[in-house]
Amino acid sequence: MPTDSIWSYTPALEHVRGADLTGFTVVARDGTAGHVDRQAVHHGMPHLVVDTGVWVFGRSLLVPVGVITSVDTAERKLTVSCTRAELKAAPRFRTDSETMDRVYLTAVGHYYSELPREERPAG
Its Gene Ontology biological processes (predicted)? Predict the structure, then answer.
């Protein structure tokens, strides 16, 4: 996946652009990964900050919107194309200032764009 598209909603998910996803449960390919704590758009790179709860010892993750494969607004749940291990292995998110750091965001985008992708349903 090209790095620039990792920061864009897929065409099938354009309806959620601008929606408040705070509090939505984040589900990886192999189980629940946490919930959306907040979302941001800095440097044209929309992303979610996901609170992982206890499975990564309270660590938060920064997840680009391009890895979201589906959003169920009724269930307040979104699915990402990654496994929990892939999410955990992403560049470490330490402080809120990193959501505005172009170098950090670029590293995150590169990491996620290099992950193997499962085929997404046409939307």
Answer: photosynthesis, light reaction
Q: What's the rounded Cα separation, in Å, for the pair 36 and 120?
A: 22
Average pLDDT score over residue span 64-86? 95
Q: Please give the Cα distance from 56 to 65 (Å, whole number).
A: 21
pTM of the model as a whole: 0.87
Please write the tens of the pLDDT for every residue from 47-74: 999 999 877 667 899 999 999 999 999 9
Quote the tokens at residue 97. 């200032």
46: β partners: 41
**Residue 8 has which token pair?**
């864009």
| Cα–Cα distance, 31 to 25 (Å, whole number) | 11
For domain 3-113, give its CATH number from 3.40.120.10, 2.30.30.240, 1.10.1530.10, 2.60.40.420: 2.30.30.240
